[in-house]
Design a protein that fits this description.
The chain is an alpha+beta fold. It is 19% helix and 34% strand. β16 and β17 form a beta hairpin.
């Protein structure tokens, strides 16, 4: 990382709140894709590249309601015009949300007279406002900062700690595939027929278990229902982290009606894992918050990953994504 770009307090309206089988926050690929599109729009002569991003959420407002005041939430959808038969036309349900987020974006490349902060910041802000973030409209950016980290170790530690505290109040989304792998192994030990999806659902399902007093086996005795805690600790959420190829990689233009006739094409399905919302100042360094692409076309995996590792864990368990 030669420099750090911070887009602080980005206000987005009508962003996509549905991410595969999950809902409540856009998938991480929406943010990494936004940074990739922003990097491609930078002038080529600057020789700068934006590599990945960290996502910090300050506020969100999902456009949903509970019809009966309790129970399942229902998305607040737009009303489409009636058909000639005076019936409601069929449409795909879209979940929308408003949100305020900040992005930490590493910059690869040397800043010179053409790309000094006072010249580059207005350009990046103009380009960012012209793009969509997770399908939503960017209506404002609180601040655009371009910072060059110091080279010495102590200075770098102070620099990163200062930047992380700037992002408060807010929560950063990090990957916790290690907890999913650990819980998957535990479920397989308890029930050999259990599948990875069962372990993944435990991080989102609300479960209660009936317990009888010790030594009582009478069916007439009333059981006591107790809440079953979710695996692990912290604010853990199921999330989509990328895609898995389910077909061969076709040559450009070989598949009819594909979006791009100059890029190889492959059919894919979503890949799911577990994430955690943490306070930014809990991270040991900025790198632990950064999500990056990890594409393996030869094996068919197209994932977004980050290197967050809790202080209490010395070695990270192997990632077991759920596809």
């Amino acid at each position: 990382m030669d420099a750090l770009l911070m887009l602080r307090n980005i206000k987005v309206e009508n962003a996509n709140a549905i991410a595969g089988l999950t809902w409540g926050f856009p998938t991480i690929s929406n943010f990494v894709g936004f940074v990739h599109a922003l990097s491609r729009k930078l002038p080529a002569d600057l020789e700068l590249k934006l590599e990945g991003c960290g996502v910090i959420c300050h506020n969100r407002q999902i456009q949903s309601y509970q019809p009966r005041g309790w129970g399942d939430h229902v998305f607040a959808l737009t009303r489409n015009p009636l058909t000639r038969e005076e019936k409601s036309p069929a449409f795909n349900e879209e979940g929308r949300m408003h949100m305020t987020v900040s992005l930490l974006i590493p910059i690869a490349g040397i800043l010179d007279d053409r790309s000094e902060p006072k010249v580059l910041k207005p350009l990046i802000e103009q380009l960012a406002l012209s793009l969509r973030l997770a399908g939503g409209t960017i209506i404002g950016i609180g601040a655009v900062e371009i910072l060059e980290p110091p080279e010495d170790y102590e200075g770098l530690q102070l620099f990163e700690r200062k930047q992380l505290r700037k992002l408060l109040p807010g929560f950063a989304l990090v990957q916790r595939s290690d907890l999913l792998a650990e819980h998957t192994g535990h479920c397989a030990t308890q029930d050999p027929a259990a599948e990875p999806v069962d372990a993944w659902l435990d991080f989102s399902a609300i479960k209660f278990q009936a317990e009888l007093p010790d030594g009582v086996v009478d069916e007439q005795t009333q059981a006591e229902w107790r809440y079953v805690p979710k695996p692990g600790g912290g604010w853990l959420v199921p999330m989509a982290i990328g895609y898995r190829g389910i077909s061969d990689l076709y040559e450009p233009g070989q598949v009819a009606r594909s979006r791009d006739s100059t890029t190889p094409f492959r059919f894919v399905e979503s890949v799911y894992s577990v994430g955690e919302w943490i306070s930014p100042h809990r991270a040991t360094d900025l790198k632990q918050l950064i999500w990056r692409y990890h594409a393996e076309p030869e094996t068919g995996w197209y994932l977004c990953r980050n290197s967050y590792q809790p202080k209490s864990i010395k070695s990270k368990s192997p990632s077991i994504p759920l596809s």
